[in-house]
Amino acid sequence: FGEDQFVSGGLEDTGGNFARGNVTLGEEHRDAAVDAIKQQVEGCDSQPGFLVFNSWGGGTGSGYTSLLLEHVRMSYRKATIVQFAVLHPVKFCSLLSHGAVQRCISHHSDT
Fold first, then answer.
1. What pTM did the predictor assign?
2. Counting beta carbons within 10 angstroms of the beta carbon of residue 16, is it exposed (0 to 12), middle (13 to 18) or buried (19 or more)?
3. Which of 6, 67, 96, 102 has the highest Cβ tally under 10 A?
């Protein structure tokens, strides 16, 4: 992949705020990102789907990405979307049961 294929490169930090990534900064940068997505799709001979890599720990990864995915789902209804979410181990551990948290913390204590 080349740098021209990254959609959100250079986006201002959202401070971990979903609404800032989805609404405030997202709306400012949406058109440029939509144009970049459209340009990539038009350059394909066959475009069966999208691979999306994003974090769920902050506003850019979660808020901005959800805004872009909403556009992709509406514009490319037949396309398959495969999403790879990156979770911070401590945040992920808080979603688990107490016993699983104990194992998760001990597993990630060296990182």
1. 0.66
2. middle
3. 67
